[in-house]
Design brief:
By secondary structure, the chain is an alpha/beta fold. It contains seven helices and eleven strands. Bound molecules: ligand LNRAV4D5 and adenine (ADE). One of its GO terms (molecular function) is S-methyl-5-thioadenosine phosphorylase activity.
């Protein structure tokens, strides 16, 4: 049964959605363990949505410790089809200034120890990931931001998000390297999430909120947690306004997304011969194809 078609993953600084009503807190178990925290199901703009605090509501999980598979599987188990991420990022470009919002359309993977696939154990799939963000959902996000006329916020449509391992922030040499690659922003969480969301056939897009200039900018101090949280607190109200407007737009006009059939040509193992246990663990993802 579908509980919510829209899911929201709140990152650093966005641990709850104040406008949710008729709230139900659900502890979800998955074949991949427990999610970062309980899923908070509530009504926003007349629509049921599911919210998850990515690092837990008390921010107790490091990026490398995040149970990405459980988080995405839990959203899938509630029937989520559109997954919106809110994230704090460092800016790698002068024009993307703190408090601005970026809707990335590309990622560069600089992680080292993340499990970013549901497959294995006898079932192999290779999803297409040339366009890692759902452009329809990204468009809804960007349109919502543009129409809200948020004070102090400039919107940047498109851009490349470097996903680093962390938890330490980058060195200056790394930061300059990523700039030389043309990257726009840097964070520690979005890439595994985007891959798993694609495998789970959910449309995924991220609202990246700039909190700092990382450590490359000659006129700005190097990033610190204090800087990130200070700017995010200023932006948490804006972020919730954006999400509210996105939910309204999505419920009125749910866009078609290629992500919703991402596994159609991705599974290479004949499923009739695949191990029963792997099929059982992935049944939620595979049931259309069995
Ligand atoms: C608290 S600064 C570093 C931390 O913030 C970002 O988290 P999220 O993407 O969940 O907003 C960044 O990726 C790091 O995990
Ligand atoms: N400069 C930065 N590097 C990595 N993750 C971040 N999150 C917020 N700012 C960041």
């Amino acid at each position: 049964m579908t509980v919510a078609k829209i899911g929201i993953i709140g990152g650093s600084g966005l641990y709850q959605m104040e406008a949710l009503t008729d709230i139900e807190e659900r502890q979800v178990e998955t074949p991949f363990g427990k999610p970062s925290d309980a899923l908070i199901i509530g009504t926003l703009e007349g629509t049921r949505v599911a919210f998850l605090a990515r690092h837990g509501r008390g921010h107790t999980l490091m990026p490398s410790e995040l149970p990405f598979r459980a988080n995405i599987y839990a959203m899938k188990s509630l029937g989520v089809e559109y997954l919106i991420s809110a994230s704090a990022v460092g800016s790698l470009k002068a024009e993307a200034k703190p408090l601005d919002m970026v809707i990335p359309d590309q990622f560069i993977d600089r992680t080292r120890s993340r499990v970013s696939t549901f497959f294995g154990n006898g079932i192999v799939a290779h999803i297409s990931f040339g366009d890692p963000v759902c452009q329809q959902l990204a468009g809804v996000l960007a349109d919502a931001i543009e129409n809200l006329d948020l004070p102090e916020v400039t919107l940047h449509r498109g851009g490349t998000y470097v996903c680093m391992e962390g938890p330490a922030f980058s060195t200056k040499a790394e930061s300059h390297l990523y700039r030389s690659w043309g990257a726009t922003v840097i964070g520690m969480t979005n890439l595994p999430e985007a891959k798993l969301a694609r495998e789970a056939e959910m449309a995924y897009a991220t609202m990246a909120m700039v909190t700092d200039y990382d450590c490359w900018h000659p006129d700005h101090d190097s990033v610190s947690v204090e800087m990130v949280i200070g700017n995010l607190q200023k932006n948490a109200v804006n972020a919730q306004r954006v999400i509210q407007s996105v939910v309204q737009r999505l419920s009125q006009h749910p866009p078609e997304s290629d992500a919703h059939s991402a596994l159609k040509y991705a599974i290479i193992t004949p499923l009739d011969k695949a191990p029963a246990e792997a099929k059982e663990d992935l049944s939620l993802l595979l049931k259309k194809y069995l």
